């Protein structure tokens, strides 16, 4: 080819190549814009946390606030007065029923007992003599050697000495009791408190402050209250408690964090409702083997009124409150949500029992409700949870 024809041909080929490149770029840009518009028109999925409604046996608890009370509390007071010879316990010591906890000077009471014994011996001697005299007088009266009046006088004398002897025996019994009361014993098993009198002091019978206060904390009681609306649920348990101790309702004492301190049994549903507060008082007994409960301690208490078999439960945040009442967002097979009315029951450890509205295995939204509306496309945003996509 001639050189003068080659240059125009090259220029023409360049122009053709540039036009082809521009057409290809325009086509690609148009396709990208179309795809972007389609993506903009497509609905976006909302990230939510999804869980399954599960079926299980659900214990139904009723919870209230209460306080721990000693099962028994006794202020130990002396029954007789005198010098306190010794105090035989340490503060905070656990004692058994009948243990000696103090000793009062017994000598005055031992002397009083000896005096009463001697007095009875005197009356017994006089009674013996009067009975012998009565036998002699009766024989004389039978032979008409003595008058009937003398016989009656001797019979009266015998009766008098018998009464004196019986009174002396009663004085001996009282003196023995007083002597026994000089040894102060624990009336119940329990733990001693602060010592209120030191050895060497003079104590009096029934002195107001006493010697020490004993509290029985094994077992221990918890008194708590519940709203009066729960009376119907509690009444069968109260009837069981009255009929059979083994069938009493289970009660748990809880700490501030909800941990179980001890397990016990319901003893009492009070016989009246507090009109001022509309509450019902209950009392439960705990063995308290680990001493987790202490008199005066505030605790939460819950009583197990029933166990519902095959109940449907969901995490508590699933249940939302709407204008038409409680509802839950249910995730459909196409990963969209629909609001469904539900009837919630008791709340138990972060889960809510569903009386009606949900079936076991249905997927429900736990978190992320704020951006949802009927028909919203969702995806499970919780790490490790079952995907909704």
Set out the fold topology.
Blueprint: H1 3-41, E1 46-52, E2 54-76, E3 82-87, E4 94-95, E5 100-104, H2 107-142, H3 148-181, E6 183-185, E7 190-192, E8 202-203, E9 212-227, H4 231-243, E10 250-254, E11 260-274, E12 279-286, E13 298-315, E14 320-322, E15 325-331, E16 337-341, E17 343-348, E18 351-356, E19 363-367, E20 378-380
Parallel strand pairs: 1-20
Antiparallel strand pairs: 1-19, 2-9, 2-13, 3-5, 3-8, 4-7, 5-6, 7-9, 9-12, 10-11, 10-13, 11-12, 13-18, 14-15, 15-16, 15-19, 17-18
Give the helices and strands as they follow along the chain. HEEEEEHHEEEEHEEEEEEEEEEE
Instruction: Supply the number of helical segments.
Output: 4
Overall geometry: rod-shaped
Radius of gyration: 47 Å
Which range does the strand content fall in?
Answer: 35-45%
Describe the structure.
- The protein is rod-shaped.
- The model is unreliable at 383-389 (pLDDT under 50).
- It folds into four domains: 47-55 and 310-380, conserved putative lor/sdh protein from methanococcus maripaludis s2 fold; 62-70 and 216-309, Efflux pump adaptor protein, beta barrel domain (Elongation Factor Tu (Ef-tu), domain 3); 81-104 and 182-210, RNA polymerase II/Efflux pump adaptor protein, barrel-sandwich hybrid domain (OB fold (Dihydrolipoamide Acetyltransferase, E2P)), CATH 2.40.50.100; 106-181, Orthogonal Bundle (Helix Hairpins).
- Helix 2 runs antiparallel to helix 3.
- The chain has four helices and 20 strands.
- Helices cover 31% and strands 38% of the residues.
- The protein is an alpha+beta fold and 389 residues long.
């Amino acid at each position: 080819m001639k050189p003068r024809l080659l240059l125009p041909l090259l220029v023409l080929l360049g122009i053709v190549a540039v036009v082809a490149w521009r057409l290809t770029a325009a086509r690609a840009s148009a396709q990208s814009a179309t795809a972007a518009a389609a993506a903009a028109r497509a609905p976006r999925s909302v990230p939510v946390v999804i869980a399954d409604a599960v079926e299980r046996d659900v214990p139904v608890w009723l919870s209230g606030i209460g306080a721990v009370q000693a099962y028994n509390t006794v202020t130990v007071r002396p029954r007789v007065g005198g010098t306190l010879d010794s105090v035989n316990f340490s503060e905070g010591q656990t004692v058994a029923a009948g243990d000696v906890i103090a000793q009062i000077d017994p000598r005055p009471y031992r002397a009083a007992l000896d005096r009463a014994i001697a007095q009875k011996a005197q009356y017994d001697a006089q009674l013996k003599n009067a009975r012998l005299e009565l036998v002699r007088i009766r024989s004389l009266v039978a032979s008409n050697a003595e008058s009937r009046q003398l016989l009656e006088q001797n019979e009266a004398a015998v009766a008098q000495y018998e009464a004196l002897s019986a009174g002396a025996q009663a004085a001996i019994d009282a003196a023995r009791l007083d002597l026994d009361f000089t040894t102060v014993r624990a009336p119940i098993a329990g733990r001693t408190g602060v010592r209120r009198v030191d050895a060497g002091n003079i104590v009096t019978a029934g002195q107001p402050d006493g010697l020490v206060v004993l509290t029985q904390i094994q077992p221990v009681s918890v008194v708590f209250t519940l709203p009066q609306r729960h009376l119907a649920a509690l009444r069968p348990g109260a009837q069981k408690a009255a009929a059979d101790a083994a069938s009493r309702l289970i009660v748990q004492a809880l700490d501030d964090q909800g941990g179980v301190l001890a397990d016990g049994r319901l003893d009492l549903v009070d016989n009246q409702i507090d009109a001022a507060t509309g509450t019902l008082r209950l009392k439960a007994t705990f063995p308290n083997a680990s001493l987790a409960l202490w008199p005066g301690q505030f605790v939460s208490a819950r009583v197990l009124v029933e166990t519902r078999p095959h109940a449907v439960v969901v995490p508590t945040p699933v249940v939302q409150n709407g204008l038409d009442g409680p509802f839950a967002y249910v995730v459909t097979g196409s990963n969209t949500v629909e609001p469904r009315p539900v009837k919630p029951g008791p709340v138990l450890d972060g889960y809510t029992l569903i009386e009606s509205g949900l079936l076991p295995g249905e997927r429900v939204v736990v978190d992320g409700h704020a951006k949802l509306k009927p028909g919203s496309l969702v995806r499970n945003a919780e790490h490790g949870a079952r995907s909704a996509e």
